Amino acid sequence: MADDPMSIGEYLKHSRLARRLQLEHISEELHIRSQYLAALEADEWDKLPGEVYGIGFLRSYARFLGVDADALVDYRRRLTQKQSGSAPERSTPATPVLSRRARRARAATTSARIRRARQPRDREPAAGSSGRVVLGAGLVLVALFVAGMFMLRSQPTTTSALPVTTPKSKSTSHTRHPKKPSAPSSHHHSAKPVPAAAKPIITLTGNNVPAGILTYSVSGGPLQVSLDFSGPCWVEVWKNGISSNPSGFTYAAGQTLNVSSSSSVEFWAGTRLFSLTVDHQAVSLPDPSDRVVHVTFVRS
Q: Transmembrane stretches, by residue range (predicted)?
């Protein structure tokens, strides 16, 4: 019937078609698999990784379309709180959809921020490799200098041997041996200590809190990212722009995820139930909440 209210999935699909958008385009922008977005539009929540992750996907999808994400999330939570086995009620959210002009402005702002957050990933700095070459050449020169000085000062001086006399009344002879020249002390020519390598500098370069997107710049060598989980958390990881686990994986409390990469590491996480370490330095994510978070670390 024409007067039947729309479900959450129909509401999302209607908003997407009104903007003439494809699921593949939205999936690429949000880094959410297209089958998860299709499951949201079909109200098939059993095909999602879980209720917590589904809520996060719903919030990000709704914000991208320019509709009231909080109203949709609250409506979904009210439906799940009902204990009856009947089908979910089909009703429109309490908060109206934003105007067409507001939706366009909000979507343009979100897309621009996403593009700016992903730009640092294309840069491939070479400062780290050149710095290592200069440091290695300096160490070689210092070692050659110290070795040359030691060899010049350690040459023995020639001395004439004294004649040895043996007393006739003694049956055994005692032969004197000239003393060997002692090697010069080398503590005055020891190599200068090499300063320890500086800790990498981690800088927040992009922060789109409403969309849950964070971008960091990390100075120094290869990236080493570690996640220590304190509760169940679904994670999908990209190394140098390539997915390491395309379907994601749910980690339990006490487990640890270690990722190493030469240029970039990024991941989606369904919850904030983890502590984050980058190059042995603790990193605190801003605005802690239960929404899905997308974090990117790029070597600078």
A: 133-152
176-212 tens-digit pLDDT: 555 555 555 444 445 566 556 678 888 888 777 666 6
pLDDT at 298: 85
Could you give the residue range(s) of every CATH 1.10.260.40 domain in the chain? 8-98
Q: Which helix (DSSP H) or strand (DSSP E) does residue 281 occupy? A: strand 281-283
d(CA 43, CA 87): 11
Distance from C-alpha of 81 to C-alpha of 250, rounded to nearest angstrom: 24
As a whole number of angstroms, the distance between CA 107 and CA 97 comes to 13
User: Between 23-30 and 51-65, two packed helices, what is the crossing angle to 10 degrees?
Assistant: 110
Letter for the amino acid at 249? F
Backbone torsions φ then ψ of 81, nearest 5 degrees: -75, -20
With H, G, I as helix, E, B as strand and everything else as coil, classify residue 63: helix
- What residue type is 117 in one-letter code? A
| 8 A C-beta contact, residue 104 and residue 66 | yes
Considering only CA atoms, which of 48, 50, 44 is closest in space to residue 290? 50
Q: What does the pLDDT read at residue 267?
A: 78
Give the model's confidence band at 74: pLDDT under 50 very low, under 70 low, under 90 confident, else very high.
Answer: very high
Residue pair 181/153 in contact by the 8 Å Cβ criterion: no
What is the value of pTM for the model shown?
A: 0.41
- DSSP per residue, 287-300: S--SS-EEEEEEE-
Domain 8-98 has CATH 1.10.260.40: yes
pLDDT of residue 4: 61
Residue 276 phi, psi dihedral angles, 5° rounding: -110, 130
- Return mean pLDDT, the chain: 73
Residue 147 has pLDDT above 80, yes or no: no
Cα–Cα dist 214/218, whole Å: 13
